[in-house]
Amino acid sequence: MNILQTARVAIRALLRNKMRSFLTTLGIIIGVSAVIAMVAIGEGAKSQVEASFASMGSNLLIVLPGSTTAGGQHGGFGSMPTLTWEDLRAIRTEVPAVRYAAAQLASGAQMQSEDQNWSTRVFGTTTEFFQIRNWPTAMGSPMSESDVESGTKVVFLGQTVVDRLFGANSNPIGQLVRIRNIPFEVKGVLAKKGQSPMGQDYDDAAYIPLKTYQTKIQGGLQQFISGVILIGAVSESGTQLAEKQITALLRDRHRIGPGQDDDFSIRNLTELASAQEAGTKTLTTLLASIAAVSLLVGGIGIMNIMLVSVTERTREIGVRMAVGAKPRNILAQFLVEALTLAIAGGVIGIGLGLLAAQRLATQFHWPMLIRPDVIVVSVVFSALVGVVFGLYPARKASRLDPIDALRFE
Amino acid sequence: MAETSSLLALEDVTKVYHMGDVDVHALRGVSLAVEEGEFVAIMGASGSGKSTLMNIIGCLDRPTAGRYLLAGEEVSRLDRNALAEKRNRTLGFVFQNFNLLSRTSAIENVELPLLYAGMHTRDRHARAEAALARVGLADRVHHHPNQMSGGQQQRVAIARALVASPKVILADEPTGNLDSVTSVEVMAIFQELRDSGITVVLVTHEPDIARYAARVVVMKDGKVLSDVRQEPQRAVPAPGGAVEGGQP
Questions:
Q1: Handedness of CA A26, A29, A30, A31 (dihedral sign)
Q2: Fold for the domain defined by B37-61+80-229
């Protein structure tokens, strides 16, 4: 008797009791679909975290000026300008792990179009900023070197600002806006970027050339940068190296002796991102393990029903043995029955799990991420559950004495 | 005494069951030889050991002591797999309560021995159909047991017993659950099988049924009490009986 014939016998036996077979597989169906859906949720959340960190900028470091210490009172970082334009130039030219470096000065400002006004943050910066932030222009043209060098009165608006000042779906290129009553020409609209990981709207901002900012918005100090320096490292793994090199450079330039505190601080956002990712990964693992437990419970359900089935079908087993079934034929039949239940449950569970994942993805607006390895593992695992939990009842069936089995009432 | 050329040869077979502390001697030294083509009825009161004897002849059980030769081969010490093979190839069983698989069509029930013999599907169908036709159920091939009368069910069981062309058909009280008319029909089939050369061994406690056998072995207290050959009565089914077409 070959495996195909065994499978046919087993499937026929299962079909004789359709309702029970279905209820038995339900445990596996729920288990597998839970695993698939949970992993999809985890992956979706992870990709969303990744996307929001990617939107901050690639391989981003932020260098903040130091704190003041007056009479034992420590001010916060950035309370005293300690970073100089020379520092910025040195970082740009002397640190090999740095690809881009840009100063970013910021202040809140009231902006007006012809008939609307909006209060937002205005940033003065240079062309590198948009490289670091990975931020393309949606309309008009991007900030150019000549804008930065000659300090033209042009502005690049975030989408939220455009919506507020000109209305949704409008094209403000070439129009005038007033920032603190100074007219600026809208030269570009930046692509929509969405929210930062902390929920801040990136698109609620206006960018003007650094020189223009310094002359028209905020004079500030000549030597010091009254803002922060954004750094784009050469690679994701290079952020740590860049951090170390910049720290060494600035400590040297600021003449900070060993043991003394830095008068600046560096935030490594890649590290923050990987910490967040590790967090979501832990969550995914947790969810998947809970789901896996339900798979195990499903397996116990199969064992339970198989045991009932063996008892109930003792006479059938006796008849089969009487007409020549060997113990291994009986073992194979019950094992294949358990396996079929488990695999059928697994396949149905995958279908339901994918469906659930898709609905959740639409619900939470994240990409539908299906990991093929999870699907394969689910099938293999449910098959394993079938074998493991089917083995005991099947052995019990195969060891029945034919005479006792035939006499069983 | 038993000759090794006999189809079935039991030599001083004993069987002891251990029921807790008590040993039950079901068979106390039975010697019996059945030749090919015989129709033997084993009779006896309950507890006489006739069922135990049947189980041993049927390779469902092994004797505690003594030898059992089936078609010249010693089978009393074979393991479970080898015994299963003997049951599959050499023996066919008919039971009092039919023992058909429920929710399974007649033909699938009949195919069962061939399935375990590893026969291909197409050959299996042909053989099973032929066997069903032989017991007069050609038009009931796809019926399920619950759609058939007791006589029809028993005939399906006989078809199952003979489908693999066994040397011996063992029937344990085959008419016990049937009325007298149907019983005669079933006995007619057994006689017909015997006529075609199949050895039939029948366990019964009804003298009416034993009349149809050519030899009657009476058991008592685990021993053979008597072993008599007789002129069997011919089983003649009532006109319009089940053999020709079955009851509605």
A1: positive
A2: Rossmann fold (3.40.50)
Q: What's the one-letter identity of residue B222?
A: G
Percentages of chain B per state (helix, strand, coil), in multiples of 5: 35, 25, 40
* pTM (global) more than 0.90: no
Q: Taking the CA of residue A110 as centre, how many other CA atoms within 13 Å lie in the half-sphere pointing to its CB?
A: 5
**pLDDT confidence of residue A9:** 84
Give the CA radius of gyration of chain A.
Answer: 33
**Tell me, what amino acid is at B224?**
V
Rg (CA), chain B: 18
CB-CB contact of B51 with B45 (8 Å): no
Please name the residues between 267 and 326 in chain A that touch chain B, using a CB distance below 8 Å.
Answer: 315-316, 318-326
Q: Which two tokens stand for residue B17?
A: 């069951």
Alpha-carbon distance A239 to A231, whole Å? 9
Give the DSSP H or E segment for A110.
strand A98-112
**Per the structure block, which two tokens stand in for B107?**
């033909």
Would you call B164 and A318 a contact, using CB atoms and an 8 Å cutoff?
Answer: no
Please report the pLDDT score of residue B244 as a whole number.
42
> B245: pLDDT confidence band, cut at 50, 70 and 90?
very low
Q: What are the residue boundaries of the structural domains of chain B, listed by start?
A: 37-61+80-229
- Host H or E run for residue A375: helix A372-398
Calpha distance A298→A304 (Å, rounded):
10
Is A74 in the B-facing interface, judged by CB distances under 8 Å? Answer: no
- Give yes or no for A407 touching B (CB within 8 A): no
Interface test mutation site (partner B, options A323, A329, A400, max chain B beta carbons within 10 A): A323
The pLDDT value given to residue A50 = 77
Alpha carbon of A96 to those of A90, A237, A264, B11: distances in Å? 11, 13, 20, 100
Query: What CA–CA distances, in Å, run from B46 to A22, A407, B26, B69?
Result: 45, 15, 11, 26
Give the chain B residue nearest A318 (alpha carbons).
Answer: B99
Q: Where are the beta strands (DSSP E) in chain B?
A: 8-19, 22-34, 39-43, 65-70, 73-74, 91-94, 168-172, 199-203, 215-220, 223-229
Mean pLDDT over residues B110-120, rounded? 92
pLDDT at A40: 84
DSSP sequence for A23-51: HHHHHHHHHHHHHHHHHHHHHHHHHHHHH
Closest CA to A119 of A170, A180, A175: A180
Distance separating alpha carbons of residues B110 and B105, to the nearest angstrom:
9
pLDDT band at B186 (very low <50, low <70, confident <90, very high): very high
Low-confidence ranges of chain A (pLDDT < 70): 1, 58, 67-80, 197-198, 219-221
Cα distances (angstroms) measured from residue A197 to each of A54, A132, B113: 10, 17, 70
For β-strands A117-125 and A205-209, DSSP reports them as parallel
Q: At what angle do helices A269-312 and A372-398 cross, to 10 degrees?
A: 20
What is the Cα–Cα distance from A320 to B112, expressed in whole angstroms? 7
Question: Taking the alpha carbons of A190, A192, A198, A204 in that order, is the dihedral positive or negative?
Answer: positive
Looking at residue A301, its pLDDT comes to 87
- CB count, 10 Å around CB of A223? 10
pLDDT value for A195: 74
Tell me the pLDDT band of B174, cut-offs 50, 70 and 90: very high
**Residue A307 burial (CB count, 10 A):** 15
At B248 the pLDDT is 40
Distance from CA of A361 to the nearest CA of B (A): 45
